[in-house]
Amino acid sequence: MKNPIHPALSPESLLSVKEVAALLNRSVSFVYYKTQEGSQYHDDSFPSKIRIGDRAVGYRYQDILDWIESRRVMGEPS
Fold it and tell me: Residue 44 belongs to what domain range?
């Protein structure tokens, strides 16, 4: 399947928090708030982060695409 947003990325590619924020056209804080337990903006449906180092996390590209699509289906802004 061709990648609809960025043809060079495979579905298994890992994106940094900054790349996820850029893809969503949101701030880095938005990504953190979506994943932070206890945040008023926490969203259980937001993709889980994957630890890739002591101080680094990534998000699977396909998970982000699926989350975007789920928001479109529900009629909610991502």
Answer: 17-74
